[in-house]
Amino acid sequence: MLAERLARDAGRRVLIVDRRPHIGGNAYDCYDDAGILIHPYGPHIFHTNSREVFEYLSRFTEWRPYQHRVLASVDGQLVPMPINLDTVNRLYGLNLNAAELDAYFASVAEPVTQVRTSEDVVVSKVGRDLYRKFFQGYTRKQWDLDPSELDASVTARVPVRTTRDDRYFTDTYQVMPLHGYTRMFQRMLDHPNISVMLNTDYRTIQEFVPWQHMIYTGPIDAFFEYRHGKLPYRSLHFEHRTHATTQFQAVGTVNHPNEYAFTRVSEFKHLTGQRHEHTSVVYEYPRAEGDPYYPVPRPENAERYRAYEALTRTRPDVTFVGRLATYRYYNMDQVVAQALTTYRRLHPRPAETAAEPEPV
């Protein structure tokens, strides 16, 4: 987004450098050997309440409506996730209505004086049993930590509903790029001021390519050569499989909070709407080592990040954006919003008054 804005709106020359062999980062998609459009780095589902973000991306893609649904495998059943009225009724053999479910949650919730951890968030809302069935095992696999050891923000992201609404998200805009994310990125970067260099570590060329300002999206601790020690990240291993059937599971994603080493299985045809005689799915296995995906939200990690953040003020020639460079868990729409806000800060003048193109 920043490359597109700087090139198209500000008239700057931009060089994008990526160590991977493709554009798009983790949102990159492609066709597998079976001809099915997949997300190699796990499912990426677009949703936002921001009209600005939606309208900006709409310049580069058409959309298909898609409302993501998730089931969780619990006690031998597949039940809706987030927890809703149907989840509770089916698990416990009840016949509650919405008002009665509110009272039920109140009856099983454990009072917490001050909500500090992910465990506090859940048990104070829905009690200990639902916490164990849906959150404790999943969190331990995902983070290799108990929810009691993680910041409240981790489980606060997952709502609990008293209605039968089984959509995973409730945002105003819930869509997928009609022809995929990579096609959208290709259109975004289709500008004469933009050059792309793949399979390249920026550190190997920064002394040989003239530049005035760098926008850095990698891990912030790596940029500063781990001066304050490594920031912990969680990684993922993806196991892709193709099945000789038109559909593998009933919804886009099935969570497995308690069984198996993987956390979830996603089927891409639900997301993309593609029609094909076969189907492809991906199993996600959390890992301690590998490409960094998730900053680990704990107080000591936030403190270490602040030490790195202080170092960024010594580098006015570099702007740090994105999940890894700011050590925050962002959804895709939040990254787009951050990029647009950053652009306005970097280039507050209207495009028509911009100076002559300069290297970036």
From TrEMBL:
Keywords, A to Z?
Answer: FAD, Flavoprotein, Isomerase
Q: Which cofactor does it need?
A: FAD
- Report domain UDP-galactopyranose mutase C-terminal positions: 133-329
Which InterPro entries does the annotation name?
A: UDP-GALP_mutase, UDP-GalPyranose_mutase_C
Q: Which family does it belong to?
A: Belongs to the UDP-galactopyranose/dTDP-fucopyranose mutase family.
Protein name (Swiss-Prot/TrEMBL)? UDP-galactopyranose mutase
Question: Organism source for this protein?
Answer: Deinococcus radiotolerans
